[in-house]
Amino acid sequence: MKNLTGRTAVVTGAASGIGQALATRFASEGMQVVMADIEETALAASAKALSSTGASVLPMLTDVSDSKSVDALAEAAYTRFGSVNILCNNAGVGAGGLVSDLKIEDWQWVLGVNLWGVIHGLTSFLPRMLEGGEEGHVVNTASLAGHVSPPFMAPYSASKFAVVALSESLFHELAMQRAKVGVSVLCPGWVNTNIHMSERNRPSALGGGSDSGLHEDDPRAAMLKQVLAAGMAPSDVAALVLGAVHDERFYVLTHPDMTPAIEARAKAIVEGTNPVMQMMG
Ligand SMILES: NC(=O)c1ccc[n+]([C@@H]2O[C@H](COP(=O)([O-])OP(=O)(O)OC[C@H]3O[C@@H](n4cnc5c(N)ncnc54)[C@H](O)[C@@H]3O)[C@@H](O)[C@H]2O)c1
C-alpha cells in the first residue's frame, strides 16, 4: 500500500510505546488516526499531543479483550472517517513466571489482550475493510517471543506464537482472495516502552490491583526497565512497519541479530532434538 495520505489508520494500544509511535508516524504521513487504548489518562494525553501537531485524531477508550468494545471502536472509526485502511492490532501486555506457579487469571489476562485482542480486531474490522474495496493493510503485533519460547514467558509466548500463526493463515487467505488488503506480522525484540509496567492495566477480576505484578520500586521492574531502555526506539519500529506496509512485506523482524535463535529452534524441530534455550536478546 503506497499512498497513505488522507487515509485512515486504527491503532490499538496507542497511548504508549510502539502503538503511540505508529499513530505518530501514520499521522506524519498525512493519515487520519484512531487511537484506541484502555488507559484513559494516557490516551487523552497522547491524543492531545498528536492533535496539537495538526493531525486528525479520534481517541477511543477501548478494551481489546472485550469484543463489544472493539465493535464499538470499529463503529466509531467508520462513523467518523468513513473507511479504515490500516489496522494495527498492537495492544499487548507482558506477564509470566513459572508455569507451575501461574494462576488461571494470568493466562486469561495475557491471552485475552494479546491473542483475543487481535482476533477481535480482525472480526470487527476485516470484513468491512474487504467490503469497502479500498487498499488496506493489517499489522498484527506479535513478538520475537512468537518464534522462540524462553522460560518464564509461557503465556506471553503462547499468545504471540498464536498471533504469528493466525497472521500467516490470513496472509495466504488474502492472497487467494486477491484482496486489496494485505497483512504483516510485527515481531520485535526489546523495544524501549512501558511494557514492564503492564500490570497498570490489569483488571481486578483477573488478578490486577495494588498487590499484583511488578511495581516501579520492585528490583525486577528496574532490571527489566534497564533492558528495555537499551532496546530499540519505538519510532524506529514504526519506521520499519511503514516500510513493510509500503512494500507489502509480511514478516517485520526488528532485531536481525536474533535470527540465529529462530533458526536454532527450527533446526531442533526438524532434526528431532530437544529445544535449546533461546532468550529474547
Ligand atoms: N516492548 C517490547 O520490548 C516488545 C517486544 C515485543 C513485542 N512487543 C509488543 O508490542 C505491543 C505494544 O507494547 P509496548 O511495548 O508498546 O508496551 P506499552 O505498555 O508501552 O504499550 C502497550 C499499550 O497497550 C495498552 N493496553 C493494555 N491492555 C489493553 C487492553 N486490554 N485494551 C486496549 N489497550 C490495552 C496499554 O494501555 C498501553 O498503552 C504489545 O503487543 C507487546 O506485546 C513489545
Would you kindly provide a written description of the structure presented here, covering whatever features stand out?
- Helix content is 46%, strand content 13%.
- With 281 residues, the chain is of the alpha/beta class.
- It has one domain: NAD(P)-binding Rossmann-like Domain (Rossmann fold, 3-Layer(aba) Sandwich).
- A seven-stranded parallel β-sheet has the order 3-2-1-4-5-6-7, sandwiched between helices.
- α6 links the parallel β5 (136-141) and β6 (181-187).
- α1 (17-28) crosses α8 (234-247), α3 (67-81) runs parallel beside α5 (116-132) and α4 packs parallel to α6 (154-176).
- It is globular.
- It starts with 7 loop residues before the first strand and ends in a 10-residue tail after the last helix.
- Nicotinamide-adenine-dinucleotide binds at residues 12-13, 15-19, 37-39, 42, 62-65, 90-93, 113-114, 141, 143, 188, 190-191, 193-195, 198, 201, 228, 231.
Quick description:
By secondary structure, the protein is of the alpha/beta class.
Show unreliable segments. Answer: none
Net shape: globular
Largest sheet: 7 strands, parallel
User: Helix content range of the residues, please?
Assistant: 40-55%
Which descriptors would you attach to this protein?
single chain; 281 residues; alpha/beta; Rossmann fold; seven-stranded parallel β-sheet; 9 helices; 46% helix; binds nicotinamide-adenine-dinucleotide
Helix and strand topology:
Layout: E1 8-12, H1 17-28, E2 32-37, H2 40-51, E3 57-61, H3 67-81, E4 86-89, H4 104-114, H5 116-132, E5 136-141, H6 154-176, E6 181-187, H7 219-229, H8 234-247, E7 251-253, H9 259-271
Parallel strand pairs: 1-2, 1-4, 2-3, 4-5, 5-6, 6-7
The structure holds nicotinamide-adenine-dinucleotide.
